[in-house]
Amino acid sequence: MIKAVRGTRDLLPPDTALWNFVEAAVRDVFRAYNFQEIRTPIFEETALFSRSVGEETDIVAKEMYTWEDRGRDRGALSSSGSQSRSKSVSGADSRSGSHSGSEEGRGQSLTLRPENTAGVVRAYIEHKLWDRGLNKLYYIGPQFRRERPQKGRYRQFYQIGAEAIGPASAGSESPARDAEVLEMLATLLDRLGISDWNLELNSVGCANDRAKFNEALRRALEPVVGKMCADCQRRAVTNPLRVFDCKVPDDQPIIETLPRISQFLDEPCRTHFEAVQAILTKVGVRFSLNDRLVRGLDYYTRTAFEFTHGALGAQNAILGGGRYDGLSEALGGPAAPGIGFAIGEDRLVMSLKQTAEGVLRKPDVYVAPMAGMNGEAARLGRELRQHDLVVELGDESFRLKKSFEAATRAGAKYILIVGDNEVKADTFSLKNLATGEQVQVARGALAEKIR
Ligand code: HAM
Asked: Ligand 1: which atom is nearest the Cα of residue 147?
């Protein structure tokens, strides 16, 4: 038997009702803040992610689904034996995206998106979205990371994210943007009834601060790094900031003693961070400062944040985000400061108090046709659905007892019997399945009565 691949899962009814409930609330809230939806491809050139998320991050170094796509003329030749030629690749070569697709016949390194910010910024540049004044974008969709699956961690997971990006002249660098995005998130979580969240906030500074901080980290690591895990020993050389991503318990006491980015913020970054905090306080969004929070992606500058939720267990980050002021330039675009976030939708759904049963819309009516009445039942079903009622149709082969059982199992409020006499009189018997009350209702009055 073929099963869903490890780390992936089927979302089944009635749970999908909960997902739809979340997505409807999200779209509603985003609309109020003037965010509009963008949909980017699920796979992109590998170089997009290595350049934005960063070669040294866990995501790019270990977790991406990368393959070499078949070259164009190889594809044309592929009537036989093509399978062996389209070998998949992994490792440094594919990660750096060194295979150029434009070269005839050579494969192109492609990757299933591990996150969506890079794709949005690529689209922003590719379509010159600044010219169209499109600077507040949101997305909902699957992302892929080859992580060790556990509760709240999947290899295909879903993110709900938003990005506010644009030329600095449009205010995209302002601390007001950061505060607006954070306040929107607080509003969204409250609206969904998730009240016990904690907003952890930090500033990771700008490139200048980072250079000084990295230097200090290198120095601080030198005498102790020999006692740390192999990953940290590599990070200490290539990108010391990433040492803060380490989850190895034995390394934590050492990491606790390292310098913090907060000690290295220059004046503009410090002022920016203070302004974000001042607005949050003004609008009543509670937060706590966490100067160990550096986030697992390299593109961040200044404001970085996570919302955590106690009920989630080890994977307690319900969402994360931050500012990425140099990302557009790093991808060959114009200066376009930005800030955004992504919610782990799987985790968001796990932290809801609502149940799927609670948000599911059950059938308003079950239409039960007697012998030869399938056509009449279909006609009634069509009429009632035009009144925005949820209708389930039975079948003329069912005995009345079976129809009642099916209506009850479907959770219908009413059962509507369609027989010869009813059709002739154009009046139908409608029974409330909860109370047992039964009434005769004329066709034209049915929808009103059922609602
Ligand atoms: P991230 O922190 O890598 O940030 O992911 C954001 C959220 O996605 C996490 O807080 C978590 O809830 C969820 N998530 C991540 N990996 C998994 C997984 N394997 N299984 C289930 N949920 C997961 C980003 O992706 C950035 N692009 C966010 C951002 C947008 N920053 C600026 N703009």
From this structure: 19
CB under 8 Å to 99, separation ≥6 — which residues?
A: 68, 93, 106, 107, 108, 109
Q: What is the pTM of this model?
A: 0.90
Give the distance (Å) from ligand 1 centre to CA of residue 11.
Answer: 19
pLDDT at 65 over 50: yes
Q: How far does residue 164's CA lie from ligand 1's centre (Å)? A: 17
For tokens 């919610």, the residue is 343
- Verify whether ligand 1 is closer than 6 Å to residue 159 (CB atom): yes
pLDDT digits (tens, 9 = 90+) for 130-180: 999 889 999 999 999 999 999 999 999 999 999 999 999 999 999 999 999
Q: Match 């050139």 to its residue by tokens.
A: 45
Question: What's residue 354's pLDDT?
Answer: 87
**From 9, 65, 157, 351, mutation site for ligand 1 pocket: most ligand atoms within 8 A of C-beta:** 157
Q: Whose CA is nearest to atom 10 of ligand 1?
A: 319
Closest CA to 143 of 319, 311, 12: 319
Q: Residue of the nearest CA to atom 15 in ligand 1?
A: 344
| Cα-only R_g, the chain | 28
CA–CA dist 89, 451 (Å, integer): 58
Q: Which stretch of DSSP H or E encloses residue 414?
A: strand 414-418
Statement: residue 80 has pLDDT above 70 = no
pLDDT at residue 84 tops 80 = no
420 — pLDDT class (breaks 50, 70, 90): very high
Cα–Cα dist 245/298, whole Å: 11
Q: How far is the CA of 386 from the centre of ligand 1 (A)?
A: 41
User: Which ligand 1 atom is the nearest neighbour of the CA of 318?
Assistant: 12
Q: What are the angstrom distances between the C-alpha of 8 and each of 76, 115, 158, 431, 446?
A: 33, 16, 11, 43, 45
Residue 58, ligand 1, Cβ within 6 A: no
Closest Cα partner for 140 from 50, 5, 20? 20
Atom of ligand 1 nearest to the CA of 153: 20
Pocket test for ligand 1, best of 5, 8, 59, 115 (most atoms within 8 A of CB): 115
Q: How many CB atoms lie within 10 A of CB 28?
A: 11
125-143, pLDDT tens digit by residue?
A: 999 999 998 899 999 999 9
| pLDDT in the model for residue 195 | 86
